[in-house]
Amino acid sequence: AQKITQTQPGMFVQEKEAVTLDCTYDTSDQSYGLFWYKQPSSGEMIFLIYQGSYDEQNATEGRYSLNFQKARKSANLVISASQLGDSAMYFCAMRERSGYSSASKIIFGSGTRLSIRP
Amino acid sequence: DAGITQSPRYKITETGRQVTLMCHQTWSHSYMFWYRQDLGHGLRLIYYSAAADITDKGEVPDGYVVSRSKTENFPLTLESATRSQTSVYFCASSESLVGSYEQYFGPGTRLTVT
User: Fold this and answer.
1) For a surface tag, which of A7, A11, A36, B104 has the fewest beta carbons within 10 Å of its beta carbon?
2) Does residue A1 sit at the B interface (CB-CB below 8 Å)?
3) With bands split at pLDDT 50, 70 and 90, how would you rate the model's confidence at A106?
4) Which residues of B touch A107 (CB under 8 A)?
5) pLDDT class for B1, splitting at 50, 70, 90?
6) Which of B40, B45, B105 minimises the CB distance to A45?
7) Residue A19 has pLDDT above 60, yes or no
8) Looking at chain B, which residue has its C-alpha nearest residue A42?
9) Can you give the pLDDT at residue A80?
């Protein structure tokens, strides 16, 4: 069964520093996708970045990048030059199997609460 | 308004009562999902739907019922609410389950069962 593990329940980082949020996953499929979402204190879920299992390059979106190490089954989120507004819960998620199957679905890790210190 | 909406945003109900949480999306996305969010568990998938009249169980479906008679609506019903169903419920939709298509989430419904 697929599984997502986020081992850091909480992190404190100084403003302007870079931060890495860990995510490891377990799947027996060759085709899968990895997502990161941000959930600020207001509660909404905000999509940040996506990495496909066959993508050779690490995904980047502005200050967000995904450090994808396929052999280690890890998909860590890196936030460069952290800002106070980055304080939030961050969830790693994985979609497994071919997208054409109705059995394909996304599961989430338990999240990491990131707090940025001024 | 375009997007995905949930109603009610807050609900308090008593044990044993039936309650329905509504979800509506305006994008005509094929795929819709219901999650519950509890401290320490992240988001857990309750049910999902690939199209109108096609639904399937997720990780924690017991005690919940869904239907999808129209593409844009995906209501979640708790047939006999229990205290363990106190949670924040998120509805989500997605255009596709292939590639980088992300899920778009509604604002959530905070349900308290007393």
Assistant:
1) A7
2) no
3) confident
4) 45, 59
5) low
6) B105
7) yes
8) B107
9) 95
